[in-house]
Design brief:
By secondary structure, this protein is of the alpha+beta class. Helix content is 61%, strand content 19%. It is built from six helices and five strands. It has helices at residues 14-23, 28-38, 40-51, 57-64, 68-80, 100-118; strands at residues 3-6, 9-13, 55-56, 84-89, 92-97. A three-stranded antiparallel beta sheet has the order 3-5-4. It has a two-stranded antiparallel ribbon with strand order 1-2. β4 (84-89) and β5 form a beta hairpin. The longest helix has 19 residues, at 100-118. The radius of gyration is 20 Å and the shape is elongated.
Length: 119
C-alpha cells in the first residue's frame, strides 16, 4: 500500500495503520479507571492507602482535610470504580486499595511526576 502524508511528512503505510488499529482493545474501562484517579483528592486518598494498607473513613477525612461525608463520597467513588475495596468492622467502614495493580499505578505515576519535575 502507499504511504499517506501527514502535514507534509510521510506517515506509516495504510496497512500498518490498520494493523495497529485492529490491535487496540476497547479502552473505556481504562479511561474510567484513570478518570477516577484524575481527581487530586481521590489520588491523595489512593496514595494514603499506599502508605497505610487500610484506613477508616474518619481517618481519611482527617488526612484530606474534609468532612466525613466528603471523604465517604470519594471513597465510594473509588470503590465503585474498582480502585478500592471496603470492609465493615463494627460501626466503621475501612478501605484499602483494590489490588496491587492500583498500588503500583499510583506509585509509578508519582515517581514519574517527580522525574518530570526534576528535569
Amino acid at each position: 500500500m502507499a504511504k499517506h502524508t501527514c502535514g507534509g511528512s510521510t506517515s506509516l503505510e495504510e496497512t500498518n495503520v490498520l494493523h495497529i488499529r485492529e490491535q487496540i482493545p476497547n479502552l473505556v474501562g481504562v479511561a474510567k479507571f484513570l478518570k477516577a484517579l484524575s481527581d487530586e483528592t481521590r489520588l491523595k486518598i489512593a496514595y494514603a492507602l499506599t502508605i497505610e494498607q487500610e484506613l477508616c473513613v474518619c481517618d481519611v477525612a482527617e488526612i484530606i482535610g474534609s468532612s466525613v461525608a466528603t471523604a465517604s463520597h470519594h471513597l465510594r467513588y473509588l470503590r465503585d470504580h474498582h480502585l478500592a475495596k471496603a470492609e465493615r468492622k463494627g460501626k466503621q467502614m475501612f478501605y484499602s486499595l483494590a489490588d496491587d495493580h492500583v498500588y503500583q499505578i499510583v506509585k509509578i505515576a508519582y515517581e514519574h511526576s517527580m522525574e518530570e519535575e526534576a528535569k
